[in-house]
Amino acid sequence: QLQLVESGGGLVQPGGSLRLSCTASGSISEMPAMYWYRQAPGKQREWVALIDSGTNYADSVKGRFTISRDNAKSTVYLQMNALKSEDTAVYYCNTVRAGIPYWGQGTLVTVSS
C-alpha cells in the first residue's frame, strides 16, 4: 500500500519561507498528478497546488508557492515564500492511484511573529 510522509513544517515569521516535502513509499513516476492541500484550524481542507504535466495553484498562494517533484526520489515539494498568518495550517500531500486517494499524516505550518 502506498504511503505518503510529509515533512518540513514548523514555526516561521510572516514573510519567511519553508519547503515542505512529501516522500512516497513507492515510485511516483506512475502517478500523473500529485497534490498539496491544507487545513486551517476550524476550516475545511482546501486544495493548494497540483503538479502533473504542468502546475496549478489556488489563487491564495499563486506567485508565492511553487510545487515541484523529483521522481527519482519519489518526492514532491512545496516551496512556500512570503508566508502570511493565513497560511497557518496542516499541510497534506495527496495522490490517487487506481481510483483510491492516498493522504499523508500532514505537517503543521505556523506563521506567527
Description:
This protein is mostly beta strands and 113 residues long. It has no helices and 11 strands. The strands form 2 sheets. Strands 2, 4, 5, 6, 9, 10 and 11 form a 7-stranded mixed sheet that branches. Strands 1-3-8-7 form a 4-stranded antiparallel sheet, with no helix packed on it. It is globular, with a radius of gyration of 13 Å. The N and C termini lie far apart (40 Å).
- The outline comes out as globular
Spatial separation of the terminal alpha carbons: 40 Å
Radius of gyration: 13 Å
Number of helices: 0
Which oligomeric form is depicted? single chain
Question: What is the H-and-E element order?
Answer: EEEEEEEEEEE
**Poorly predicted parts:** none
User: Roughly what percent helix?
Assistant: under 10%
Structural class: mainly beta
